[in-house]
């Protein structure tokens, strides 16, 4: 029978044997486990919802960032996700519409990925796309239009990633799957994990909300009052900390999602929009959905021109003029029509009057939503350039 001193002396041996047994139990794998991802959120931000089948971890985010910037994820190795979502432009591309590897243009503007983790709907007009994992498939494998051009080239893509030792290491640590971890499903899961980390929360507006009274000027505060007023109605579609009304996060009983006709067109006098951009009507077939699009976030809005779903308004001043008029009037051409008379437009697009000082104040407030640290944060930057 062992005495107390014998038992104390045996403890290191017991610990060593226990560690050895654990090593054997996991198949002798010396690869360290994935590290939990730690959210760093201000008090006025909720925690993003994360799908149960794609939990966050640091290595998955690292892998997703690498994939996001890798042109190997296109048919001719010339285009990456970042081609249309550039960090310096709040993950937009500065173009009216984007162009794919074949030169074919998409029908819509590249939407900002800032705070995309909170989005309940993920495209301008398709209410069926609700998960980042699914959205990633559209530019990669879609054929109408062709963007990254990977349809039918799945095997080539996977073989190229498997041949890369760094990718093999990252996939191994990011996923606990048995067998081959380099799969299309895991590619989209990793990209989605990285995109969920693209949190923009450090604008001067955020500093003001956090209690820094001098973070906004008097003009910007006046602009915020106007923005939040029933007179302008802006906050109805661009509300909350996300500045949009399609939102989901931990604590919400049901995700919110809405689409809006803003009177941008009225090509037939009955509410019609151009045939290649009919809004969510294209998916639902409901005539009431003609011209209805998602309200994008207004965070970093100053640097994401041109505006609207088709990039058809070049400046932020032009957008404000559009809403002040209660809809856009196009005098001539195939898209001619009085958008202010569109019978399907949102009840919140009713028009308003602003004097020069008030207009300047609203624009100043919108500029205060720019998050310079988000635009340069090395965590979100191209890993191949570091």
Structural notes for this entry:
The chain is an all-alpha fold and 386 residues long. The chain has two domains: 58-199, Cytochrome c-like domain (Cytochrome Bc1 Complex, Chain D, domain 2); 204-373, Cytochrome c-like domain (Cytochrome Bc1 Complex, Chain D, domain 2). 33% of the residues lie in helices and 2% in strands. The chain contains 15 helices and four strands. It has helices at residues 4-25, 58-68, 81-84, 132-135, 137-141, 154-162, 165-174, 184-196, 204-209, 218-227, 234-237, 281-284, 316-324, 356-367, 372-376, and strands spanning 259-260, 293-294, 329-330, 337-338. The strands form two sheets. A two-stranded antiparallel sheet has the order 1-2. It has a two-stranded antiparallel sheet with strand order 3-4. A hairpin with a 6-residue loop joins strand 3 (329-330) and strand 4 (337-338). It is globular, with a radius of gyration of 25 Å. The N and C termini lie far apart (61 Å). Residues 1-29 have low confidence and may be disordered.
